[in-house]
């Protein structure tokens, strides 16, 4: 072996040793030497901590980079000029950074790299939730007219993922039609409710409720419907059987929106014939002393800007003297009273007979004179027929 060959031999041996040592060293270091991260979900406008951990690390450097592959932090050194990003903790085992004032565009896959040979990387997905805007209800005509078909639309913008809209009619759920429209990274959600309004919708609250994972409580917006409708009238009367000389009050009860403020009274298509006895006060008509000549059709009329309505009452004044013969109700009542009296009489007779029979058997063991006595003493005295018994009993009472 020439000295030259010997040198090569020595060098190659040394090389192998170096390679071997390096190999064993890296195997030892390889035990658990890998970066660990977690996915993060945050609401826009807040901040997110991105943590990368290496449980068993020599002083190998860690790095965070954003979805655009730009390095954010290399160890404790800031690499990207973005005032929203700051260092929370940098050690050999951890690199945590914070991104403040998160926007939807920050969403994506972030990479943590550990600069071993080869480099080891792990990904963390940052999910940003878009907060829905307060719902707005449109399509309101105030007031609405009865019979109109109205379409209420509730809109909320900026949610991500798309928010859920729910309609409530006086706190009870009703089904709307929902449309979702992507605007940039967030969504505009619309829900429409179409219906024909009637008078029962007057004063009803329609609420649009928006639910989203970024909201602790749903957002709600309420609109109260106002519906205008033609008046509806009804006459209430104070007497069932009006008789001559009585006092009768008729009230024209009106519903309607707006409520009609004036009620007009008429009789048989003309004016009220007797202003002295027929007094109109607001919605009420009072006839002070009824007379047969008051018979007829009384009508009240009221209007609002949507139209006019009427109600009628037919007055028939009974003659109090003739009521006995003509009043069908009285004949009926008389009949019922007669039947009741008859049944009661029958019962009394039956009961009387029954009692008499029983009393009779009982009395056979007793003195007959006791029957009509007001008290026990006199009963004993009265029962003269039985002297023995009377004396015995008297002793008891002395
Ligand atoms: C981020 O980490 C810091 C420091 O550990 C902590 O004070 C803060 O609450 C964390 N923020 C979030 C959003 O987890
Ligand atoms: C890491 O570096 C520090 C000083 O910077 C040193 O004291 C420590 O021993 C090193 N650790 C390893 C495992 O190399
Ligand atoms: C993190 O998010 C990504 C993308 O959404 C997903 O594919 C992955 O499974 C998530 N990892 C964990 C640990 O949840
Ligand atoms: C989304 O909304 C815009 C504006 O309101 C509208 O022009 C577009 O047609 C909508 N797209 C869909 C798919 O509804
Ligand atoms: C009814 O009216 C007539 C004529 O107006 C009058 O003669 C009569 O006395 C009235 N009857 C009563 C009970 O008031
Ligand atoms: C009114 O009704 C009474 C019934 O009580 C009847 O006798 C009378 O003739 C009626 N009068 C008119 C004017 O219709």
Automatic annotation (TrEMBL):
Keywords: Disulfide bond, Immunoglobulin domain, Membrane, Repeat, Signal, Transmembrane, Transmembrane helix
UniProt GO BP: homophilic cell adhesion via plasma membrane adhesion molecules
Record carries keyword Repeat: yes
Localization (cell): Membrane
Keyword Oxidoreductase assigned: no
InterPro entries to which the protein is assigned, alphabetical: CD80_C2-set, Ig-like_dom, Ig-like_dom_sf, Ig-like_fold, Ig/MHC_CS, Ig_C1-set, Ig_sub, Ig_sub2
Main location group: membrane
Stated name of the protein: Ig-like domain-containing protein
Organism the protein comes from: Takifugu bimaculatus
């Amino acid at each position: 072996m020439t000295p030259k060959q010997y040198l090569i031999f020595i060098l190659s041996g040394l090389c192998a040793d170096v390679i071997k040592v390096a190999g064993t060293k890296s195997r030892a270091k390889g035990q658990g030497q890998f970066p660990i991260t977690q996915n993060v979900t945050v609401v826009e406008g807040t901040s997110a901590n991105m943590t990368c951990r290496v449980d068993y690390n020599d002083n190998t450097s860690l790095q965070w980079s954003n979805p655009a592959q730009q390095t954010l932090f290399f160890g404790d050194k800031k690499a990207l000029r973005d005032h929203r990003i700051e260092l929370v903790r940098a050690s050999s085992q951890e690199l945590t950074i914070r991104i403040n004032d998160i926007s939807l565009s920050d969403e994506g896959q972030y990479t943590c790299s550990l600069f071993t040979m080869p480099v080891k990387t792990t990904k963390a997905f940052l999910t940003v939730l878009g907060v829905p805007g307060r719902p707005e209800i449109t399509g309101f005509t105030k007031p609405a007219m009865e019979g109109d078909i109205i379409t209420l639309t509730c809109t909320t913008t900026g949610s991500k993922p798309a928010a859920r809209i729910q309609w409530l009619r006086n706190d009870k759920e009703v089904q709307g039609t929902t449309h979702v429209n992507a605007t940039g990274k967030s969504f505009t959600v619309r829900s429409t409710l179409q219906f024909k309004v009637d008078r029962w919708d007057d004063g009803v609250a329609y609420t649009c409720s928006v639910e989203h994972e970024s909201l602790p409580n749903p957002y709600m917006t309420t609109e109260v419907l106002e519906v205008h409708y033609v008046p509806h009238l009804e006459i209430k009367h104070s007497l069932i059987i009006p008789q001559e000389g009585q006092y009768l009050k008729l009230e024209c009860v009106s519903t309607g929106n707006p409520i009609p403020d004036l009620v007009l009274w008429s009789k048989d298509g003309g004016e009220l014939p007797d202003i002295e006895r027929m007094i109109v006060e607001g919605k009420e008509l009072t006839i002070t002393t009824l007379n047969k000549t008051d018979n007829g059709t009384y009508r009240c009329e009221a209007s609002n800007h949507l139209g006019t309505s009427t109600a009628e009452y037919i007055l028939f004044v009974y003659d109090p003297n003739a009521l006995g013969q003509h009043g069908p109700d009285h004949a009926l009542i008389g009949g019922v009273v007669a039947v009741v009296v008859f049944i009661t009489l029958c019962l009394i007779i039956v009961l009387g007979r029954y009692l008499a029979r029983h009393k009779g058997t009982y009395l056979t063991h007793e003195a007959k004179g006791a029957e009509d006595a007001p008290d026990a003493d006199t009963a004993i005295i009265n029962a003269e027929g039985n002297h023995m018994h009377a004396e015995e009993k008297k002793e008891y009472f002395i």
